[in-house]
Batch of 4 targets.
Target 1
Amino acid sequence: MATLSDPVVMINQGWEKIRVNAIQKLENYLNTGNSQIMFTKKEYMEYYTIVFNLSTLKQENIQQQLYQKYTDSINLYLSQNVLQELQKLHNDELLEALNTRWINHEIMVKWMQRFFQYLDRFYVQINSITPLRDQGFKIFKGVIFQPLISQITDAILENIRREREGELVDVDLLKKTIEIYQFLSNEKLSQETLNCQKYLEDKILQQTQQFYQMQSQNLLSKASLSEILHITNKYYQEEIQRCENYLIFDIKDKLLKEFQQEMLLNHQQGLLERESGIKYLLQQDKFEDLGLLYQLYQNHPASLNPIANAFKDHIYQQGENLVEKFDFSEDVKDHNKMKELLKSTQLVENLVSLLDKYLYMVKNCFQQNAFFERTRHSSFEAFMNKNRDTNRVNMSEVLAVYTDIILRKGGIKIEEAKHEEYLEKIVKLFTHLIDKDIFIEVFRSYLAKRLLIEKSQSIDLERSMISFVKLSCGPQFTKKLEGMLTDLSLAADEQKKFEIHCSSSSQLQQNNISFGITILTTSYWPTYKSFDIQIPREIDSCMKNFTQYYTSKHNHRQLQWCYSLGSSTLGANFQRTGKQYDFVVGTYQLCILMLFNYSQELRYRDIKQAMKFDDETCAKNLKSLMTAKCKLLEIRNEKSGGNFNEDDVIAVNELFTSQLKRVVFPTPVLEEVFKKEIVQEDRSIAIEASIVRIMKSRKKLDHVNLVKEVLQTLQLFKPSPQVIKEKIEQLIEREYLERDPDDKSIYKYLA
């Protein structure tokens, strides 16, 4: 017969008390939702004490039995009360009931864990089994979630479908339900065979793929690319918002990948090549649509290639259309004709506008993507250097001539506030040129003329232009240009000192000629054809005075007079008409005119002999004084053809008239502004210097890498590999380099 002190009796009585007074009371609360029924502190301590006392009985496996009773109690309640109720429900009703039961279950596990807390402290830890709280949720997962997961997931998917089709859904309900999936998939429950979150994720991704596959097929059949992009972007933003609202587990990237695969990637070629495709967007300047296109594809770098290729082809076509309107033939090698053509065709203005447009597009449509910027640059480089290997005029020369028009007085009118900005844009065009050295050489020649004949709009603008080129190429390439401006500043100071010197000398004061000198540094300025001409004695006297003054101060410097860029103002009295004029002429023209102070008429041969000119220079200077507009000289004898004969008699036109008191005569162009031979010589020196520098540093290098490094170091032009090879051979002949005896493709530097 069992007694009250019998452990078995004590266990049964204690458990019955817990089951009836604690567990059934808790279940009743959960079933009715009667919040008035709660456990007081006294009740809680009573039930905890019962479990404690039972756990400390000297009965074999007593704690294991209590752990099992804890499990069975929760299992029984869920099976008989919760599962049967949920199995009858669908869609939102199921989700609402599930969330209610989940909250109830959290309460149940909380109190049950408190009652059986003593087991957690010792039995669970000693035996390394699942803690009571986790065990409670594992039971829910096994009893409720595993049998119903398909039904619950279908309810979630139905809500997602409805929301994608524009219906309103209970976002909070979905979020709370998905949080249950998340909780039941945490690491503590990971040993379970069912991964709830992975199950839901796979189903959502499958539904997403099917939904957007259907949507894309519908759009492809009836919508333009612009419409598709806007609808796709709308879907894209909705999916992002959906992930933020309730798809809170790690599914965003995978979901967007499925979305983009179906809506964008699978049909990309068809989207881009359709009539309303990317060519249409580029041609019609659909900046917003292009921005959307890039935004939607930017996470897939490989998919940007066809977009960039279309962008490249479009830019090249637009640029080529502009360039082909300009005549690059031999006819425009005369820079005066080129300037007229540049003004009429507005080639550079259109290129600047084109550059602005596509820089804006790269920045605002393609988010300053480096790949698209390289694409834009290569397209401009391709069409701007199209003629560089032909006999046609080079774009580098054209751009330099245009720059002269901009910086010269009386050139193209540009708002003063925008002048520097426009020059900067021209330099941006310049960066696309391969033959940058040609641009700099032509620019230097025109800069010299603007500075020396005072035709520059502003020295500050000249400095700005040079600074932009300096930023683009580096200081070593603008040293001469900066030196020219420095020379001009120093020359002004030297002129003032000379004037002071003249005013202090009684002998020098007797000459009434206003005589100005500009001292130039030979290495900075272009070289000019020079003749040892017969200088009028009045001017020759001034030159000798200045030479004496200058050499006394700088005895180690040598002066070389350059007449071709000089200018003068000459007074003229015409007795037959009684009129007086001031003629603005070049130094050569001045010397020719002053010959007529001593003779009424001169033969062509006499003028040429007196001036020590060659035939071309003499003819050009005479013709410049015989223009139809300003016919100061005339040929007295009968003449046929346009060339001068040795016996032609030339005299002053005594009936010369002009409405202007001050008459400016055009200075003839005596030599080409751009001499290709000089550029080729400079290039040859630069290539050889680059090869020697590289080999001196490397000591030993193979042919392919040497050519590659030479091309990388030459910034102002890009020679062909064949030219580099020829220079290497020449350096081998001059014993700067030698070939490796074992491998002829390897070169060695000879110290």
Target 2
Amino acid sequence: MRVRLLAWFVALCLVPAVAFGQPGGTQPRFRTETALVTVDAVVVDDRGQPVTGLTTADFEVLDEGVAQRVEFFQETGAPGSGVSTPARKPGRYSYATNVGAQATATRTFVLVFDDLHLTREQGEQARLALSQFIRVQLVDGDLVSLVVPGIALRWHARLPGGRDELLRIAEGLQGRFQPEPTFERITDYEAYRIHVFQDEAVANSVDRRWRNYRQLGRESTNLASDRGFQPQERGGNAGVIQQDLAIRAADVYSRLMARNRVTLGSMKAMVEGLEAVRGRKSVLLFSAGLIEDQEQIDARHVLDAARRANVAVYFIDVRGIGSGSAFATAQFGSPLDTRDVGFANAQIELEVQGSENLAIDTGGFSVRNANDLNAALGRISRELSSYYLLGFQPSRPGADGAYRKLQVRVRRLGVTVRARKGYYVTGDRVARAADVLGHDALQPVTDSPYDLDTIPLRVASYVFGSPTAGKAVVSLAIEADLRAFGFITTPLALTDVLELRIAATHLESSTAERYDGQVEMTFPLGTRLGEDAWYGLAREFTLAPGRYQARIAVRDRNNGRIGALTHVFDVPALDGLRVTTPIITDTIETPTGLLPASPKPVLVARREFPAGATVYYQFSVLGIPRGARILAGHQVRDAAGTIIKQLEPRAITPAPDGALSRFGGLSMKGLPAGEYELTLTVVDEAASRTIQLREPFAILPPAHAQ
């Protein structure tokens, strides 16, 4: 596969002046700014209901124990607060754009379905609770990311439009963790204590259990004579754990580390992607829990990222009430040794201590011992329906990279405040060090659900023919506003490098196609980079039918600015009569050379064309028997619905290879500026079937013509 590069300037890329503002002067950084530290605070009463109507005077913010002056204050979500979080309305045209995307205060949820730590039964409980949360607790304007670590799925949705997609994904989720069904089973916590700490007391408890089950040649413990763990009697073997038990613990711990690494890595990536935007940002972890592993730094990385991004983690323990030790169930037959009952019950808490601590340390909380998860999730949603944003400039700035403790208080009785417990000071020195060490600037943006318009972008998708069985060629046409780039002037040209990353996720299979590349842009000195100067390129994928979500991120290597957006498109079923996505453009490539050839339309994302231009269209008809008679025609209507141009359906002449395509040109000369719609009609006479495709477009005022 390849990248097709096309530079479209001036007359080729005219756009309306009202559509674009001058790009911002600085790139939104995915780091905590030291100039103004922001913290969001949830305040609830003793019944768990949000407390609204508070003012700056009601709050006290302490940085390392020192009271700070609150310089920014905003109440979000409460009735009458004046702050709303509406979803951005979809555009009239078929392309997606990040123009106008703003980092506004809104509720952002990352829903982590921890399939790697959920059994099939636990996964079903988590799936039902997750679906109910999406269906009932999320409201219009919420921005939601659904993450499934085991299948590397990330799907972003802004409600209400994305609710159905989230529910479709949730319907197919299931737990993937399969506990050992044998009597030799060792829990994650036991494996951790034995392998990492050489804990003889825990090893002795496991050994007794194996004896009760008569495993690996062991005989049942004689309770009358056995005195339990006596390290002083081990002699030269003190500190040495039996080999078969040590090997078993090492194996279980190794697999635990692998699962934890994937789950925590997914959480870290998503949390880092939330750093650029203010507002209440929450991660809901639907899981059976993670142990507190002092040897694993992945949990620390998640905590650090959450502190930097001001993200609260909520742990949803799907095990419910009465989840006792597995070794006390009928599945394992023999009862536990009475000396081990206390430790077995303690493990119920120890198995989830890591996820509980993560929630507490980030300003969230855990939902534990609840069979009615829906009620508990409703509590989370209510708490997040109203919150306060507070900003302050530290009175005593700390050194770069230092962690500073925060405390938020409310001067009222009977209320509880939930807020992050600290933040990291990250100045320019730390930022530069991260860049020198190879920080991947595009990855947090690719994982983020937010659209960033520091580099304005437009993206359109075109679905073409099927080069291989069951798949179609899909081209993503991407356009970037050149005014946002920091071109370097050389004696001969303007130069810059555009870095591009695309991740296209398939809704039905949860698989993703990815592309990374860069484009060297060079233009002659004196090139005018006005509002009509956009750079276009196209990337081809071969995709199966279904719905896709493409995350596109672009970075200017010279000035570090980043633009990002999400584009959702469909690849239709590839059987029967179908029509490729029409190419609508005002730009064609004129063939050169001695051999005759037809003009070739250039893929563009935009649907705004200059006054007097000729608008071309091209499409192909697929899935019909060779020799079938296919007719095609078109209509152009203005905003009032009046037909201003029309071609009645006429037969398409097959190419020598039998392919059926229609290429046409429509002169816009003399037509006033405004909104129009092109309707393409395809008729299969033999099957008495008609397909109509509608493409809105606009003619710009003459002032935009060159």
Target 3
Amino acid sequence: MHNTTDIAQTLFPNLSANDRDLVNKALSLVAQAGIDNPQASQSPRPKGIDVAGILTTVHIDIYSILAAILSDSRLDDYLDETAVESQFGSVVATLVKDVNWLNKVSIYNQDMANQPNQTEILRRMLLAMTHDVRAVLIKLAYRIQRLRGLAREEEQIRKFIARETLDIYAPLANRLGISQFKWELEDMAFRYLDPDRYRGIAKSLADKRVQREACIETFLHDLQQALEEHHIHAKVYGRPKHIYSIWCKMRRKQLPIEELYDLLAVRVIVEDVTACYTVLGLAHGRWQYIPKEFDDYIANPKENGYQSLHTVVVDKQGNRMEIQIRTRAMHEFAELGVAAHWRYKEGGRHNTASEKNITSLRLLLEERGQDNLLENFHTELFSDRVFVLTPTGTLVDLIKGATPLDFAYAIHTDIGHSCRGAKVNGQIKPLTYQLQSGEQVEIITVKNGQPSRNWLDPNLGYLKTPRAIGKVKSWFKQQELGDNIAAGKSLLDKESKRLGLKSVDLNELIRHFKMADADHLYQALGRGDINNRQLAGALKIPELAPASFKLSQPKTSNKSTVTVADMDNLVTSLAHCCSPVNGDDIIGYITHTRGITIHRTDCNNILHLNPEQQTHLVAAEWSGSHHARHSVPIVIEALSGQNLLIEVSQLLHFAKVQITDASLKTHPDQSATLTMQLQIENTSQLSLVLGRISQLSNVVEVRRKV
């Protein structure tokens, strides 16, 4: 390898002396790794150097340059994460970790090429599992480096890498707004996938390149002259076209390359909206225009906010010329508002976190030295989703907090009903286990299995997704009337005993849940329409009744009583269908006209949303609430006292419940009784705690002590 100082000076001439020293240090480590372990050196020149060189074309920051160099495969077993952090800092270490994971991930398979939904889930997964979105940019540069040397590989490998590039990495480049990478990824992949068509289009472009450039130059000269005559200051330039995009348009319009008019295209950037329409009028007055090709995206912006005037005119030689006219502000939005741009191009949906991260990345690429932007790079893309795999490699997209049981219902309703266990990455896990992105899940089923009523108890944590909850409720609704009434009576009896209630005011419950009579109440309980948490909230425990005192008039505040996605200044309204009150578990639904509507999580309208509508859901919670706590004694009967106190204490710690007293008594038959004094806010929280303790394998019974 050449002298590291020469390489750093050649590739990064504009770096400061300190930054160049860091680059030289990284290059020296790569060089030494190649000497110490020649077998790890698959090529005479380290890949990381070429990748860093590719990144310089988009003016990336020093952290990304260092991470690109240090992600070279030569360093896999030579430099661990701790060593990288100690020598180059935590930002670089995190980037290197993410890039190494992205370079080694091997989920894509040929079957995904015909399954757009699977490729989309994989793209989301790659974004969700990286801590820093710049790692994705570095990975794109690694893929470009791979494609540039792909001609030396076998045909089967070439086609696989090219197909994966078009399905996964080119769309990611598009989403990040890095058009320079997008075009190169697409064109090189197309070259390997369909070399004959690639050469045919390239030859047609080359044959007519001089003629095409002459046409554009003449048109630009005439247009510039017309603008000067009317004293309009504008930036006018030709827009290059790329081979893969030309092929896509040929295929979409079923036209040969000779009939594609927008191979000749120019863009006009002006100062204000008035100038846009003035330029349009000049163009239409000077050349014949094609009415059906005119689009006014200024008066009628695209859904993503994109604004511009698009028109096609015929020049004096009969050539069709596409013209885009926009203001500088519109142009900046089109370039920096890349989240909106890729949503339009790919049919995606609004995601505030995506916009923040991607726009920050674009700003960094275009304005070097913006160190204050670095704090914005922690990835929040799809942070509310988890992406897991079936044993056959199919990707499943679930909401964060989803369990193996949610996964089972996402695969098929019958698999969910018959589910009795699950393996996650080959290890048996409880059905309440919260899945993490990248895990492989295998469901264990039984023949003719039926769902359990416990699955509908939110205190036990079996189900998280509205779809799965709806499927279980639907199953119980279809059961016999008598079975549901009996099950409802049993559930009410069990819950009242657990809460230590000597009697239940049935008429009060009927009024509370707006039921016609006791049988209808029992049916609703048996079918799961009323879950344990709702029932516990309606049951009255005198000791947990709110203190009776008069509240002073609260001060006026601009903040909402509901916090949505960690923000409390959003426009929200309470849904009339379920009328949530402070203390209920809630979720937000983004509407088109009324901001965010707040529903109870068990609202029937929420439970029956289709997959498209479920993407409008956002996390929500009550904000600024003051909760009085009450001392509540509970009794736990267990088979054994071994580890009982530890297990219960850990459970209460995660539930954020304080223990003020605990006493463990062991009996001659090795069974044990654990008495505890807890600080509880309300009946719902008590029910949740008792329900979770009852799920411990050692516990026989748990109840409030009266």
Target 4
Amino acid sequence: MFLLVASPAYAKYQPPHSMPGPAADRILFKGGITLDLAPSSIENGDVDLYLSSLKTTAAQQLLSKSSVRVIQVPAGSVSIILNPAPAPSGQLNPFAIRNVRFAIQYVINRDLVVNEIYKGLAARMVTHVSPFDYDYLGVSDIVKEANIRYDPDFAKKIVTDELTRAGASLKDGQWNFNGGPIHLKFIVRVEDDRKDIGDLVTAELRKLGFVVDSVYQNFGPAIASVYGTDPSVFEWNLYTEGWGRGTSERYDASSINQFCAPWLGNMPGWKEVGFWQYENSTIDQIGQRIFKGNFSDASERNQLYREATRMCLQESVRIWVVTLLSSFPITTSVQGLTLDSVGGPNSLSTLRDAYVSGRSDLKVGNVWVWTERTIWNPVGGFADVYSIDIWRNLFDPPTWRNPLTGLPSPFRVAYTVQTSGPSGKILVPPDSVRWNAQSQTWESVGQGEFSISKVTFNYKNYFSSKWHDGQPITIADLFYSIYQTFDLTYNPAKSKVEFAISTVDRPYLDTFKGFRIINDTSIDVFVNYWHFVPSYIAEYASVTSLSMPWEVLAAMDSLVFDQRQLAYSETAAAKYQVDALSLVEENHARLVKTTISNFAIKQSFPQTVLKVGDRMLASVSDAESRYRAAISWFNQTGNMVISNGPFYLKAFNPPSQFAEIDAFRDSAYPFRPGEWYFGEPPSIEVQGIQGDFITIGRDSKFTVTVKGPSQLSLNYILFDPAKGTTIQKGEAQPVKNDTFSITLPGSLTSSLGAGNYELSVIASSDAISVVTERAKLLEASTNPSGTSTVIATTSSTPSVTSSIDPTLLAGVVVAAVVVIAVTLVAMRRRGKGASG
């Protein structure tokens, strides 16, 4: 069951005041609080809430403290990424062989990780889709049929067959190639429970015959070693990845690409020019179809998602281990919390409405405020959760994800969507414009241009307000941001510098057909994208976050592309041996300020960028006023983080691991405390499965009761654990809102042999983005008389099969021994333990 401290959803919010901006006057972020120190920091009142997930033992200890709440949500996951690059001549990288990578799935003892390392506060995970995700409804049968289990003997057979075929030999229990042992360099994170996972996997790899060098590192050095280097230089062979989630998702298009498809730049090689690249054109094509909305309906989208998930599992570049029930401690004195269904307190709205009665501040703890890899810039930075934890409170995005449903929703823009998709077209008015990187002008699209969808955005809530430095937000900021995105991608000189960014962005930007100014606050965006949920079209068409004023963006562009003193991305910084631009680093901020000062001295501003058609979006006097304000901002704060949200960055001190954000109380700021309050998400639970047997040759009926909010749905799978195959799946029939009926017709049951079968049900709701699963082991016979067993009452998928889907293992002869009786006994024992 999805775990969360319960309180009524949408409970009445009691604002501490009615001023514009957030509830608290300031938030103090304190880093350097390790996971071991976090419990005492919370208990002693040093911090009010902690934004990193606690270690399991600490979370269990705090659950008994009356002054502390522990919020547990599926906000994190752990994977092990393998380096698939081919080895230099005369050497052998075993992970360049797909079947060897797949074999590693079988040396990960996920049940041990869940039960011993995380003490049950985790769920098994074998694909990028966690058993809590809404998309699990569509891929759960793939997960079951894959039969990923802990089976080191089976893994050893695969490895032996493949490495022998590759020319390696096993001598005295150790693999050798060309006269030397095969070494694996394993980067293991040490700040959390991933160290224990790394040690566990290291022991298994050594049993397989590899020499493993475990390199224990914390965040900064590990990120540099893995994501900042060419895979072919082999600074690493394996790495214990950790992923945090800050928002819910209903219909995923990002994770499937981020974790599986090379085109998005998160697979080994990272799309950096000159690096060896992992490639898979088929996953890229399917992933881009999902990303670009190239499907005819929900059914086709779901089928594409299934295909990509299956292929990603086959490739096994990432080995998924567990989804974490992340534990976030919060003192009971904190009021006004909005918690995301998945991210918990890592929600856009959490710190905007939270407060402690009688106090003007909030104290927030974390492992880090700053690390060696901290990069604060909106173009190629904000890649780590520690920076995002602060940044999300400083700017207002145009759209966001509803923290309960996971669906896109308006935040600071209003929008209307018109679409002729999936197959129709909308005429793009000829006076619409798009950026021409060759002529460096906005040009009219002309006659005969069409798009699938049009979204009209109204930016009144931006343009009637101000940036943090007091300057008005205008349409010039909007169009400079759009220009910056397109010019970086289509201007050859810029795309050469920031190759990884431009390569990843291009497939997305290619779908935009034009922009049209309607009036002082609204524009039309024409895009070749469609989705069966219109709000996804609006989210896709919102090409800019509008997070910083044009003069700051222009100064950054000058530093990166003209002066070549800094880079936007970490990979470009490493390539050109410069620093990655970070607006919280005083030296970098000073360079931005100096560049703006030079703009002012020369009385220059980007006229061609800010001229759209016959309309000039800014003037010299506008620019001069902005330049003065930006320079003054740096002189006051020492940073150049100028944005538009409810808080502004007052102080950022890397050596002290400290940041302070203060309330932005400008009278024109459009939001007040409570306007984005959603409370805490309700839970969903499968309470029972009534019906114990399958009578062969006759209809067998089962009744399932579900507790949850709003409109409930129930999917089911009848699975044969002996063969590892799905017999039937579908949607249960609602009897009433909380009761469902499943009928297995006699025509189906007559084809079953005597034995045990698993009935798995997955409940979902239109009011919450997470799902929950429960399974029951049923006896099938012509005259059933045994007892049924509940296998699982959590959202974890039980490991119940003892065969393997041969399509997942190319060229490998399946030789696993099937011992049905032993397997079923083990299932019953696990089931009883889980249900108790």
